[in-house]
Amino acid sequence: MTKLLSGWGRIGVPGREILSEDLERITKGAVLSRGLGRSYGDSSLPPPGTLDVVATPLADRILAFDPASGRIRAEAGLSLRELHRVFMPQGFFTPVSPGTKFVTLGGMVAADVHGKSHHSTGCFGGHVHRLKMRVADGRIVECGPDLETDLFRATVGGMGLTGHVLEVDFTLARIPSPWILGEGERIHDIDAFILALKEAGKTWPFTVGWIDCLSSGSAMGRGILTRGRWATADEAPDAFPREPRPLTVPFVFPEAALSRASVRAFNALYYRQPLGRRGIRHPDQFWYPLDQILHWNRIYGRRGFTQYQCVLPESAGIDAARRFLELLTSKGGASFLCVIKDCGPEGQGLLSFPKRGISIALDMAVRDDTQAIVDALNERVIAEGGRVYLAKDTFTRPEHFRAMEPRLPEFQRIRRLWDPEGRLKSAQSVRLFGDKP
Amino acid sequence: MKVAVLGATKGMGRALARAMAARGDALFLLGRDPAELAKSGQDLAARGAKGVGHAPCDLETPETFAPGLAAAETALGGLDAVVVTAGLFATQDALEADPRLLGRVLDADFTGTILFCEEARKRLLARGGGTLCVFSSVAGERGRKPVALYGAAKAGLSTYLEALDHRYREAGLKTVCVKPGFVRTSMTAGLPEPPFAGDPEGVAATVLRAIDRGTPVVYAPPIWALVMLVIRLLPRFVMRKVKF
After folding, report:
1. Averaged in consecutive runs of 10 residues, what is the pLDDT profile of chain A (437 residues)?
2. CB within 8 Å: A63 and B9
3. Contact B25, B4 (CB under 8 A)
4. Are residues A224 and A238 in the same domain?
5. Where are the alpha helices (H) located in A180-319, listed in sequence order?
6. Which of A145, A175, A205 is the last residue of a domain?
7. What pLDDT sits at residue A258?
8. One domain, residues A141 and A200
9. Looking at residue A217, what is its pLDDT?
C-alpha cells in the first residue's frame, strides 16, 4: 500500500519523505524539499508520478553565530522552535515569525513567511544575506540580495521550485526581554477594525486581529485586536518563560463536530472572552497560540481542510474587506479562525505574498462546495487587485492565479534559466504553473 | 564534564552531545568525516559547549582509536567520560544478501566497538576512573527474526559492557550500557514504526541522567525496559511464530 503524504490541511497524495542529516547527499536528483510540512496545501507534496521528496528537519545544525551582530548561518532544517530554544536565552528572536514555531528555516525562505510584524519588519526574506542551494543541474551555489540576484529573488517565496535550500544566513532580532507586553481590544465591526489595525500599526510593532466571520449586518467583522511589543527588561518578569506543555488532539474529529452552529457558538464565546488588561504575555501564548494544541488540524475531520488567505491591497479601498466578508458569509464559508493582519510594502521575492493592504485568512473544512467557495472568493480577490498565499493554497485554479500574479512570467523566466529541463516541481507547481508531472 | 564522543554528528549522538553542550560540558568529537565534525563542533559551540575540538576516528579502523582518544585528552586537558554512539546498521534482509556488508557491520559493532572501549577503559582507569557510555541495542536482548545478525553483535557488546562494569566499577570505571528501542532517526527512517517509538531528544535526556548517576543499564525510551522484559519471557515456540 502506498503511503500518503500531506500538508497541514491533511489532504494526502502518494508520497514518501527521504530523511537524512546529510542534505547535500539526499538532494541530488530530488524534485522537491519539504520542511515540517506546515504549508497547508500541496506546496510541499510531490508531483503526480513521483513519490520521493527530501525532508530537511534532521539537517538542523547552527554553523556560525556572531553574538555581536546576531548574524547566524544554519542548515535549512533548523526549526524556529529550536532556534528560539537556543537563542532566546541569549536575547535573540527570529526577525519575522509566522503563526507557528514548527517551521524550518528552509520553509520560511520558500514561503517568504510574514507575521504579526509585517508592517514593521516585512517578510523573512528581507533579513536573509545568503542562501546555499542545490540547483537543478546538481551544482551547489550561493545567492543573496547582492549575489545571483535573480536566483535569490525567485527563491524567496518561490516555494522550493528554484532549488533545494541547504543553508540560510540571516540576522536575528535582538530582544530586550523574552516576554511580550500586549493588550487586546474588542472591535464592533469590520470598518472600525481596519482603521484600528492601521492605527495600531503606527506605534506597535506587532498587531493581529481575530474576526468573527459568521457575524453579519452591523456586527459584520466584529472581533478582537491584539497589539504587542517586547517587554523591556524593567517590565519583564525575572524568570525565563518556560515552554508550556501542549495538549494533543488525539483523534480525527467526525465531520459533524464542526457544524455552522458549533462554530457560531465558539465565535460568540470567543468574542466575549475577558480581554484582561494591558500586561505581560508569555511569548508562546502571544506568537503561537495554536501550537499549544498539537495536531489541531484533526478537528476538521477526515476530508481535511484548507486555509484561504488573501491580501486585499490598499488601492482597493477600505470597503474591500467588507465586500469580501459579505461574499464569504453569503457563501456560508463557516470558519472559526479568521485572522486579519496589516501588511506593509511588498518584499523582494518574486512570488512573495504580502503587499500593502490587509491580509485575511480563514480555515475551511473541506466539503462538497469548497471548490465553488474558493472560486468565488478568488474572483472577488482578482477584482480587488489582491492575491492568495501559495503556502496555504489547495484549490485555486491556474487561470485565477495567473490573473492575480503579474509577476509570474518573470518568476517562470528565471526558473527556466536555472532549470531548463523542468526537474524541480511540486504538486502545486503542476496544478498552478502548468509544470509537466 | 570533559567528554569525548564518537558519533556525535548524527541521530542520538547528536542529540546527546547537544544536551551536554546546553549545560556547558566540554566536548571533543571523534568521527570519520573531518568536515562533518567541524560543522557539528560549530553547532555545539553555539549551544554552549566549551571549546569543541575534533579528530578522525573510525570504528572500522582500530589504528585510529589511540590517536583519537589521545587527541581528546590533550585538547580537553583531561577526560571524565567517553561516549560511543557510532555503529553500523542494516536490515536483516540486506545483511543476509550481502556477506561483505554483514562482515562490516559485525566488525564495527562488535570487534571495533570493543577495541575502542578497551582503549578508552585503559585511559580512563589511568586517570583514576570515569564513565564509559556505550550505545548497544534492545536488538541484543533476545534472538529475534528481524535482527538476527545485528542483534548478535549487540548481544556480544552488551555482555562485554556488563562484565566491564562488574570488573572495574570498584576501580572507578562506571560503565553505562544504553539500550535504545525504536528511535526516530535517519538510521530508522523508512522502517515501519512499532509502538513506543521515541525521539532522539528524549533518549538524550534519559541517557544523560544515566551518565550522571552511573546507571549500568538504561533503556531509552524507558518503556522499552518493560517491552523487553515481556519479550525475554516469551517461550521459544512463540518467538518462532511472531514477526518481531
Report:
1. 88 96 97 98 97 98 97 98 97 98 98 98 98 98 98 98 98 98 94 95 97 85 95 96 90 82 82 83 95 90 94 95 92 80 96 97 93 97 98 98 97 98 98 95
2. no
3. no
4. yes
5. 190-203, 260-271, 283-287
6. A175
7. 76
8. no
9. 83
For B9-60, the pLDDT digits (tens) are: 999 999 999 999 999 999 999 999 999 999 999 999 999 998 799 999 999 9
Domain region containing A110:
62-175
| Domain B2-241 in CATH 3.30.2090.10 | no
Q: Let me know if residue A93 belongs to a domain.
A: yes
State whether B189 and A17 contact (CB < 8 Å): yes
Q: What is the DSSP string of B14-73?
A: HHHHHHHHHTT-EEEEEES-HHHHHHHHHHHHHTT-EEEEEEE-BTTBGGGHHHHHHHHH
Q: How many structural domains is chain A composed of?
A: 2
Residues of A in contact with B10 (CB under 8 A): 21
Averaged pLDDT for residues B107-120:
98
Q: What span, in angstroms and rounded, lies between the C-alpha atoms of A306 and A366?
A: 7
What residues 136-165 of chain B have any CB closer than 8 A to a CB of chain A? none
For B40, the closest of A19, A61, A65 (CB atoms) is: A61
Contact between chains at A86 and B47 (C-beta distance less than 8 A): yes
**Closest residue in A to B36 (Cα–Cα):** A22
| Closest C-alpha among A75, A8, A19 to residue A45 | A8
Check which CATH number belongs to the domain holding A334 and give it: 3.30.70.2520
Q: Are residues A103 and A117 both part of a single domain?
A: yes
Question: At B168, is the pLDDT very low, low, confident or very high (cuts 50, 70, 90)?
Answer: very high
Task: Determine, yes or no, domain membership for A436.
Answer: no
Encode B116-152: b = buried (16+ Cβ within 10 Å), e = exposed: bbebbbebbeeeebbbbbbbbbbbbbbebeebebbbb
**Chain A residues with CB inside 8 Å of B9's CB?**
21
Cβ contact, residue pair B47, A64, below 8 Å: no
Question: What confidence category does residue B190 fall into, taking pLDDT thresholds of 50, 70 and 90?
Answer: confident
- Which residue is associated with the grid cell 503526480? A48
Distance from CA of B159 to the nearest CA of A (A): 31
Query: Which secondary-structure segment (H or E) carries B187?
Result: none
* Nearest Cα residue in chain B from A20: B186
> In this predicted complex, what is the ipTM?
0.94
